[in-house]
Each structure stands twice: as structure tokens, then as C-alpha cells.
Amino acid sequence: MTKNQDHQSLLAVFDREMREHARPDGPGVRVERTGDVVRQAGAAHDWNGVVWSSPDLDAARADAAIAAQVAHCVERGYEEFEWKLYAHDRPADLGARLLAAGFEPEDPETLLVAPVADLPTEAVLPDGVRLRTVRDEADVELMGRAHEQAFGSDWTRLRHQVLARLKEDPDHFVGVLAMAGEEPVSSARMELYPGTGFAGLWGGGTVETWRGRGVYRALIAFRARIAAERGFRYLQVDATEQSRPILRRLGFTVLGTTTPYVYRPTS
């Protein structure tokens, strides 16, 4: 099999398992197939949005599908609703059509996937730093502190989601803290998707003074070991420009890009 064939095969598996046949990513949410799209629907603090659209979507059907999702967002009273657009989705101008319908694009991210068996699983840490899993609400607050310092973004919505996963579905969620003494210097999450073979890596933000010292790589290895122990075959990441080079050096393959298009009825 050529490198391109391997790439296309892996992308097809990802599209089928993680998008077209998506599973709910937390308690209290549903995955709904409606017309030409698959979406997740839950409460206001959950992630709500489109995860897959039919590859047969043409221009006329695309506009109808977009209008239906806008109506769904307004009917449910969501503050925001996301259409997760991938570079290979059709029609080719789907992003422009979402923009015309009032969706706002956020920064694109790189979709990377790696077989768990090909990844390092030994977490090599700088002196004075230790890793541990998140156990309770106090740990979630430490995650939030690290997240807000690393990304400069509000933790409120993620806090609700992480607490719900930890309390109601702990078998399919892993939270990790990197601690220097009593201070959180990085945090990360892993979502385990039963029946798919995939686990998703999220977060991984490190506070500025600790960057470039191997903490991010250690968080990848720590979660890869857990995924391997639980029998998952692949790790998937939506990576920023900052983390993409590290992930590629570790053995992840770039499958394309994904751009969140967000609809906010009150904006």
C-alpha cells in the first residue's frame, strides 16, 4: 500500500467511525441523523453541532441542510451551534455557504491520527513535574486554572462538560494534570469512544513558563499508554499550529484540516 493509499484508508476509517457513525461524547447528549447531516444535540453547556455531512451534498441540498441546522439551533435556544467542516467535505464551497448563512469561522486546525502501537508511551518529564489523573472536582478546578493560563480562554463551558464526564461517564474519559509542586502547569483530556477504536486527545495546554521542556510530549505519551491498556487502536487530535510539529515528530499523520463554523443567534 502506498503512502497516499494509507492516508486515504485512514481518513475513510475516521470519517466512518468518528463522523458518520458518531457516538455521543458525554452523558445527556444525543447523536441525530437528520437529512444529509449527523449532529450532536444536548443541553446549552454541551457541545452542539454538525459532525458529518453527506459526501453527495450538492449546492441546493447544502443550503437546505444549513437552513435546517440554523432553525434547529434557534428552536433549541442554543447560544452557539457549530458546524465542524473538514477540508474534504462537499460541496467545495460549503464554507462560503455557511458564512453566508451567518456562521463565523474560527481558526482552522490540523486533523492528525496515529496508531497507538506506533507511539511512545513513556512520559519523560522535566525535574519537579509529575503527572496524575483527575479524580475529583478540586482537580477539575486545577485543570481549569492551567487551561485558562495556557490558552487565555474561559473554562466555564468546559468545566461543566468535564465534571459531567467525570461523575457520570468516567470509564470513557481521562483528565490529566501536570503539577509542579502544588501548581498546575499543564492539563489535558482524552475521550474514549467505545466501538470505534479511536480515542481523542484534547487540551494539552501548557503555561508559558513551562513550554519547550517536554511537558506536552509527556502528556501525549501518558494518554497513549492508557489508550493502549484499554485496547484502543488510534489516537486522534485536532491540532493547533503550535502542537502540530510535535505530533508529527511523534508519529502522527496529517489527514487534513478542520474548521469550526459557529452560529450564534444573538451575535
UniProtKB/TrEMBL annotation:
Residues 129-267 form the N-acetyltransferase domain. SUPFAM superfamilies: Acyl-CoA N-acyltransferases (Nat) (SSF55729). It comes from the Bacteria. This is GNAT family N-acetyltransferase. It comes from Streptomyces laculatispora.
